[in-house]
Known about the structure:
This protein is of the alpha+beta class. Helices cover 17% and strands 21% of the residues. It has two helices and six strands. The chain has helices at 14-23, 66-75, and strands at 29-31, 37-39, 60-62, 84-85, 89-95, 101-107. Strands 3-6-5-4 form a four-stranded mixed β-sheet, covered by helices on one side. It is globular and about 40 Å long. It comes from Sphaerisporangium flaviroseum.
Amino acid sequence: MINGAHVIVYSRDAEADRTFIRDVLGFAHVDAGDGWLIFKLPPAEVAVHPTDGQTQHELYLMCDDIETTLVTLSAKGVEVSPVTNAGWGSLASIKLPSGSHLSLYQPRHPVAYNLDH
């Protein structure tokens, strides 16, 4: 029945952020027309967290070695934040050309993205 997920990142400079995701992060993509790129994501998982505040959705890119990932991205000119210990994983962010930040983390919890079913 459900065969995938489509994530939308809203941007104040969508063209620059699309170019960044294509050229710097190296994500494969299709052109849906007129340069509107849709990217293939790495394997994914979804979690539902409780909140007493406003509901929201967040996007985190996961990595096996956050320190190496940040060094590699920094060498490409990407502005990276320091790594912090979030308990459930090591957390950092990278700055997109639009000025917004994209979170990265190295999980310390079991992951679901490699399950067979």
